Amino acid sequence: MDYSRDVQVACQKILDNCTDCGACVSECKLLQEINEDLTALAARKPSVEEAYSCTLCGLCEGVCPSSLSPRYMFATTRKKAVSDEEVPIEEFKYMFPDRKRNVMKMYREVNGIDYKDLKVDLSLYAAPESCLP
């Protein structure tokens, strides 16, 4: 699949709708480190390194008064990089939690940790009671 179009669409949406209010930059350490306004970043398109430096937490979306998604721009840039073989994805597959053998499962096995051993403090979650176990 060619993700070039997805990256272009994501960047163009920011170029067309961003007011450069700076809300996303003020909340995001990565955007602060890049030290460019969002429209300039979208105009030149993020680098692969920038895309993989984004945690994809979505905070930028949450504070944007225009409901834009720099996160989506970074995510599609990642997809394009993998599709274009700019990233040796095979070297990182062990980290993916949807795989049978992943780093989290191996860590738990080595350290004798099972999910039933994990204690969850539900008071830390801001979810409706109907969503809690």
Comma- or semicolon-separated keywords:
133 residues; 2 domains; 8 helices; 49% helix; 0% strand; globular
Your description of this structure?
By secondary structure, this protein is mainly alpha-helical. It folds into two domains: 4-83, no CATH class; 88-117, no CATH class. The protein is 49% helix and 0% strand. The protein has eight helices and no strands. The chain has helices at residues 4-17, 23-27, 29-34, 38-44, 48-53, 59-63, 70-83, 103-110. Helix 1 packs antiparallel against helix 4 and helix 1 packs antiparallel against helix 7. The longest helix has 14 residues, at 4-17. The radius of gyration is 18 Å and the shape is globular.
Question: Topology, please?
Answer:
Layout: H1 4-17, H2 23-27, H3 29-34, H4 38-44, H5 48-53, H6 59-63, H7 70-83, H8 103-110
Helix pairs in contact: 1-4, 1-7
